[in-house]
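Hi R.,

As promised on Friday, here is the backbone we talked about, encoded as structure tokens. Could you run it through your design pipeline when you get a chance and send me back a sequence?
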């Protein structure tokens, strides 16, 4: 689905095996991961709301595969 890099030195990536993972941009060290329940189908995005930063990602079957 793609990656997201942040000014804070993080890289986020969704995986086909249902995980959202954060890496250190300089070292490549995996810092964090969480299950998404289904494969990630898009690049993560970052947004701010009320002074707090969030990461969001679309996950799940869709497109022509959802019709099959």
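Update: got your reply. Pasting your designed sequence below so it's all in one thread:
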């Amino acid at each position: 689905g793609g990656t997201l890099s942040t000014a804070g030195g993080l890289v986020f990536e969704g995986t086909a095996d249902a995980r959202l993972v954060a890496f250190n941009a300089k070292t490549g060290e995996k810092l964090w991961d969480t299950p998404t329940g289904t494969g990630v189908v898009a690049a993560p995005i970052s947004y701010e709301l009320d002074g707090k930063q969030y990461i969001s990602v679309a996950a799940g079957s869709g497109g022509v595969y959802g019709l099959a």
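One thing I noticed while checking it: The first helix runs from residue 63 to 67.

Thanks again,
M.
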